[in-house]
Amino acid sequence: MEHLGELSIGWASLWCLVWAFLSAILPWMNAEVLILALPAVASSRKELAMLILIATTGQMAGKCIIYWVALRGTACPSGRIARAVERWRERAAANPSSPVALVALSSLVGIPPFYVMSAVAGALRMNFGSFFVAGACGRLVRFAAVAFLSKSALQLIGS
Length: 159
Fold this sequence. Notes:
The chain has helices at 6-25, 31-41, 45-71, 80-94, 97-109, 114-123, 128-158. It is mostly helical.
């Protein structure tokens, strides 16, 4: 692949950050589409790794907004929903590793959707540091796997 140059990789980095951020808060935008395209933009493994880190950063910035909005929600649900949320908060407090594992799984494989889990983590008042680390690690592994599989496919097609 031809090297894009520093100016072009700069624009690719900015585009990557913006797309990943928007895809985190707008569920109809798909981050994986961006990740699949990264090997075509990056001229080296180092550039690809940098773009994956940038995409992970953008994605987590958006997910953190969802988390904080849910944490600081303006209207507290009433009735049955409020009781259910309180029960889940108590369960999460009693076993703090379960929500962390669920966020990690969600960010890695997308089931349950990470968008939903970001809101649930905030609503359940999950520790922010645990949410962030679990989510970032899952997203990083997911994005790296998708990007390097895409790179391998491009190399197979090109050879």
